[in-house]
Amino acid sequence: MVNHATDIGRESAARSRILDTATNLFYAEGVHAVGIDRIIAEAGVAKATFYKYFPAKDELVRAYIQNQSRQGRAMIDRISERSARDSILAIFDLVADAAAQPGYRGCPFLNAAAEYPEPSHPVRQAIDEHRQWKRDLLRGLLGADGSPDPETTADVLTVANDGLLVASHLDKPANLRRLIRETVMRILGPSAGT
After folding, report:
1. How far apart are CA 64 and CA 71, in angstroms?
2. CA dist., res. 30 & res. 150, Å (int)
3. Alpha carbons 52 and 22: distance in angstroms, whole number
4. Residue 5: pLDDT band by 50, 70, 90 thresholds?
5. Which residue, 80, 104, 124, 154, is most buried by CB atoms nearer than 10 A?
6. Distances 138 to 55, 62, 104 between C-alpha atoms, Å
7. How far apart are CA 114 and CA 185, in angstroms?
8. Burial category of 153 from C-beta neighbours within 10 Å (exposed 0-12, middle 13-18, buried 19 and up)
9. Cβ(150)–Cβ(173) below 8 Å
10. 51: which residues sit within 8 A by CB, 6+ positions away?
11. pLDDT tens across 121-180, in order?
12. For residue 91, how far is the Cα from the chain centroid?
């Protein structure tokens, strides 16, 4: 008798190993610098298994980006119990938290976008979907915070976020958390209650 649940679990474990291996390598070394053969070897899977789940490298890269997006959304979901302003500040605190981690190489979305400059490419579309989700989230929080122009302010915060992510990687400022907080507070201005 064939146990399909065991087969499915083994298959999803192989897919997860491939994606986890690719995630670590892509983030540490860059997407284009890492070849399929290396991912297969380090994940400990057969070439046929790899291609069963990811018929092309770009499909693996897209899955990597989508997985990074899911993880980012989950982190932000954990801070949703706060006021709108506190939620915005907590979202930006995540930049400082990430930058403090060993092996931090900046934003995985910005890093991948630099390697996929064509806006119509499926990898770039996955990046754009994440960025649009975050911009929409900020716009909603800004509206709840009483911002007079949540659309423009969300765009400004997005640009500031990109700059902070790049600076946190390249410059590694010792006062990053304070710099982030100061940047966001200046963009937000006084709260509606003051």
Report:
1. 11
2. 34
3. 16
4. very low
5. 154
6. 36, 24, 24
7. 29
8. buried
9. no
10. none
11. 999 999 999 999 999 999 999 999 999 999 999 999 999 999 999 988 888 778 889 999
12. 12
DSSP 139-172: HHHHHHTT-S-HHHHHHHHHHHHHHHHHHHHHT-
Element (H, E) at 125: helix 122-144
Q: Token pair for residue 131? A: 């960025």
DSSP state letter for 2:
-
- What's the gap between Cα 4 and its chain centre? 34
Instruction: Please give the Cα distance from 104 to 63 (Å, whole number).
Output: 21
Phi, psi for 18 (deg, rounded to 5): -60, -50
The pTM (predicted TM-score) of the whole model is 0.89
Tokens 């064939």, residue?
Answer: 2
Q: Which two tokens stand for residue 105?
A: 């190489």
Task: Please check whether residue 99 is in contact with residue 168, taking contact to mean a CB–CB distance below 8 angstroms.
Answer: yes
Q: How far is CA 59 from the centre of its chain?
A: 17
**Phi, psi torsion values for 3, nearest 5 degrees:** -100, 100
Residues 6+ apart with CB under 8 A from 191: 85, 145, 146
